[in-house]
Amino acid sequence: MNKPNSNKVERKGIIAWFATNHVAANLLMLFIMVGGFLAIFRINVEVFPELSLDRISITVPYRGATPADVEQGVCLRVEEAVAGIEGVKRILSTASEGAASTIIEVEEYSNIKDVLDDVKAAVDRIITFPVETEKPVIAEVKSTRKVIAIVLYGDVTEKTLKQLAEQIRNDLTAMDDISQVGIWGVRPYEIAIEVSEEALRRYGLSFAEVARIVSASSIDVPAGSVKTTGGEILIRTQGQKYYGSQFSNIVLLSRNDGTEIKLGDIAVVRDGFEDTDLSCRFDGKKAVQIKVSRIGKQNVLDVAREVKTYIEQKKQMLPKGVSLSLWEDDSAILKSRMNLLLRNGCFGLILVFVCLALFLDLRLAFWIAMGILISFMGAFWLMPIWGISINMMSLFAFIMSLGLVVDDAIVVGENIFNYRQKGMKGTDAAIRGVKEMAIPVILAVLTTVFAFMPLAYTTGIMGKILRVLPIVVSSVLLVSLAEALLILPAHLSSDRQFRANFITRFFDRLHVFTRGGLERFINGRFKDAVVKAVKWRYVTLSIGIAIFVLTIGFIAGGYIRFSFIGRVEADNIVATLTMPVGTPVRQTEEVIRKLEAAAEQVRREFDAKHRGDTSVIKHISATVGVHPSASRDGPVQTGVGDSGQGHLGEINVELISGEERKVSSVDMKNRWREIVGDLPGVSSLTFMSEIFSAGDSISVELSHQNFDTLLVVSERLKEILKGYAGV
Hints:
- This protein is an alpha+beta fold.
- It contains 22 helices and 19 strands.
- Helix 12 runs antiparallel to helix 17 (468-492) and helix 20 packs across helix 21 (665-676).
- 30% of the residues are buried.
- Mean pLDDT is 82; it is low at 1-5 and 633-642.
């Protein structure tokens, strides 16, 4: 019996077919590359992925009411009405001066639109609200997609700032790539009519009668139509009034002698702003913010670029005493992450090419390096199918994939190269090399994919954010697997050699040196170390166990700390202030000014250390009445209401970029906290210098029917918690 030829390669199966059909392999590669290239222009570009927060907000204005009245008259009745609705997971109500706010958390299995309809119906059925309450505002809580903000500030009136801000808003919304622009930090317009009781008695009028006449005199009324030979004419009475002077001319009484009593004769009409505790200062001057957001498929980078161009043009046309500045450019974070990916990708391509070119072959090095680009383009092609955009999380997933994507190609390519070194023809070497490594490579890739897949099933809001990671990483790895098994062998199966030239001769000499050195290391020191490790196997096992125990000891001893999301220094420091509910706004403003003064002291101290041409602090923004940071706390961003609450305040200190300054924002934050010290009468004061936060490490909620009991217990609990190390 003849001995079978061991060099015979069976050319069956899809792997062998692709290895022998270069056109098919190239078409597949071209299809992936073109598909990925075209997909890049269709993928949404945003800072953080869009997601539903599974929450519904109910806001009921109750002007002039105390928090206790709001709780009894509104909050409790809303909670009773919505508590039995299917899909409601948890209810959180907040009673403040003049308004009630209820947040409903919806179960994940429920359709939030259906629950929202049920909540609206339940609240509409409530007939026991106090008469003074206004119409409830019920809406789904959605994550905002703010891109950039502009600050308009100066030593001018609040009305002037708002008029200029409205003009800027209209200019921005007229641009092609911008659709959503909001004005924040300034009070809404309001026409206040104050009537004295003495004036009412003098003319025999009642307050209700004056209110009725004013309401009836400021309205547009359709009055039907008239048919003529020329067509139908619509008749409409236009009486809606928009300015205080128009209301002053409303006639309340007409006497027989022809005299008239107008509203302006018995009342003071003020054409101004709503009386709310909302104010904003920027570098010590009155300010208003214009926030630009993206919607739909608008590109974050395009929106930011248009806004920046507009700012440079608009600065030249502002009146004297008014300035315009860029503020909170979220696109800069995304651009920085994209640049990081590009840098790492380029370095990865270069390192892979250089290492493989030194030890293996130029053709092998080139096509394996190309595998990184092919894999990434394939992932871009798959992203729209999964509904994933280019954002901070997906870019982070690409960066993680850089270190994994070429492993399978290197294993397959090296095995093919090994058979070619033994004298086997290119096609046969490619088929045998890839078939031998197919099962190990597939299992290796699937193992990594399975390691990431549990993140796709994480529940809650963080689960919606983290699901991007396994999808992108798996897409990159699976495309790289297809490239290594189907495309790479076809490119390495050619027997054609490079034409001899300076480069090929240089690498041939270099290969003699590098391969010789590597073989001497493998057959020398490395082999001796492996032999000794096997011979003294119990010593080797003991060393491994010792390293494992030492690692556990480092973790248990607290030397290796745990955090859900690593802290990344930001280019701004935020101090968030909360005073007890009911605190006069003047007292809150006093505390805010103390924080500003402390920030200025920090500026002086660190400017001396920085020793640069510019100050380490660019701008200081102070806000009373709301917490703006609530709208930019990481990936979960929610809108900020304009209704001011006098017990809230915030200071936002913008620093120069980290590349320009020589001091840490964390050190500045700690020094600021140290200068401020303990402030009496403050409910909470927190300082943050990170780009985003995952929230409080631990939250403790207390509930009781009696609020006074809650206050006593909460103070006692705080004293107990202070006794723990690290708190």
